[in-house]
Every structure is written in structure tokens, then in C-alpha cells.
Design goal:
113 residues, mainly beta, seven-stranded mixed β-sheet, four-stranded antiparallel β-sheet, 11 strands, globular
Amino acid sequence: QVHLVESGGGSVQPGGSLTLSCQAFGFDSRYYDMSWYYQAPGKGRELVAHIGTRGVTNYTDSVKGRFTISRDDIKNAMYLQMNSLKPEDTAVYYCTTQTLNLWGRGTQVTVSS
């Protein structure tokens, strides 16, 4: 069955770090662009970071210099290293490959003192 599963979310204080993981099942993710989106309370889903099949990355301005997207094609997985977290990063984070219109169920990240 083709699906994506996110993990690694949690609660952290401002300035802290988290690493999110996205495991792909049922397909070889190395052939697809992959992305992380987030959805804050009361807002729409927004792009956080994107990684192409050759490893080219791009980020939304608010996370540049703090978040790093990466992929491990051997493990069929993608990651989001989040540093210097801020309360406004609080959201549900989703991984996706839009080529397949495939989304995970999301993982909650809460940044609060």
C-alpha cells in the first residue's frame, strides 16, 4: 500500500530543536520530489521546504537558516531538521509527494515555554 508516515513531532521550548522523519511505503521515493508542509491552527496548509530528486532544496523565507530538509534514498525516507524553533512554528507538519498526490497524516509540533 502506497503511503507516507511522519514521526518525530513533540513539544519543545523556544530555541529548541526537533527532527521530523517521513517514511515512504509502497513506492521508491528516490524518483519523486518531496516536500514538507505545515498547517498552523486556523490557517491553511503551507509549504515549508522542498527537495528535488537530485537534492536541490528550497525553503519558505520564515525557516531559512533554521530548518534543513534532507533525504535518504537508501532508507526511502526524508527528514526535516528544525533548529531555533519559535512559537510561530507550532503546527501540524505533513510530508508529501505532490507528483503522486500523496500526503501523510501529519505530526504535531508545539513550541511553547
